[in-house]
Amino acid sequence: MNNPGQFLTEYAYLVLFALVMADQMGLPLPSFPALLTAGAMAGVGRLDFLSVFLLATAGAFLSDTIWYEIGRYRGRKVLQFVCRMSLEPDICVGQTEDSFRRHGRRTLLVSKFIPWLNVVASPMAGVLGLPRLQFILLNGLGAALWAAALLGLGHLFRTELARAISLVALPGKWLAPIMVGLLVLFVAVKYFRRRHILRLFRMARITPDELQQRMEAGEAMVIVDLRHSRDFERNPQTILGAIRLAPSEIASRHAEIPVDREVILYCTCPNEASSARVALRLKRHGIQRVRPLVGGFEVWSRLGFPLSPVKPAE
């Protein structure tokens, strides 16, 4: 095996299926470039288009079905697990549930084209009790549309992609280690970027005890409740004096937060990822003194600290 083309052709079917399945299971292994490459190779006659289409569809469908069944039997706990496992910081259970509420089962037709919706949609369908037959039909169609779109895009630009592949003039014995190394580098960059952001805000965190003491002392601060609407439905209370502000409202409502006061953020999200992202957005708007609450709303309420009912909308 003396060239990358031979390597890619010999192992393409197996690699494509494995990458698609791993990607759809939530592992940080991008299948997008693999599908584009497979489409290009099919376009120049080095792979069979129908075979790669069926394998890509099958890999996505199998992964989604596993998540769907786990969601049916394990409930909402699996959604939190998905968020913790993924290296993608924009995955949001609340946004996925909103999408299902607005668009219903049709969400499964487009979920693979939306990064934050991709992995969470299938277990969410199981959690919400979507009938199995409907899931099989809609998810199967969605997987086929997704695979066809990416493979078709690769086929359309096959000349450019084939030229790029031919430029990788490396012996076959070196190609595999280099490909693995690039993949490891991709995962590592995303992982350490996420860890760096969370570490910065862990250093600035405030504990429930400290916040309670400062509230009793009458210190001037702003407490912001970032919880999703579904969390209010289960527990329609906030920390005493908190204002409700959805992460999506930062651009339009940031002026409501005084820039000269310390801002305390809390949510019910895993790893305090939402609080960290909101803190970065607030800092871009000139609000620098931002601290996330350790444990969020759940720990605060469990400790018996002051809560107030959510005022109904007028």
N-to-C span = 72 Å
Shape annotation? elongated
The number of distinct β-strands equals: 6
Radius of gyration, taken over Cα atoms and rounded to an integer in Å: 23 Å
How are the strands of the biggest sheet laid out side by side?
3-1-4-5
Structural class designation:
alpha/beta
Average predicted confidence as pLDDT = 78
* N to C succession of SSEs: HHHHHHHHHHHEHEEHEHEHE
Which segments are poorly predicted (pLDDT under 50) over 5 or more consecutive residues?
Answer: 1-5, 87-91
List the domain count as a whole number.
2
Q: Give the helix tally.
A: 15
Helix content: 55-70%
The major beta sheet can be summarized as: 4 strands, parallel
The portion of residues forming beta strands comes to 5-15%
Question: Can you put this structure into words, describing what you see?
Answer:
- By secondary structure, the chain is an alpha/beta fold.
- It has two domains: 196 residues, no CATH class; 106 residues, Rhodanese-like domain (Oxidized Rhodanese, domain 1).
- Helices cover 64% and strands 7% of the residues.
- The protein is built from 15 helices and six strands.
- The strands form two sheets. It has a four-stranded parallel β-sheet with strand order 3-1-4-5, with helices on one face. The protein has a two-stranded antiparallel ribbon with strand order 2-6.
- α1 packs across α2, α1 runs parallel beside α3 and α2 crosses α9.
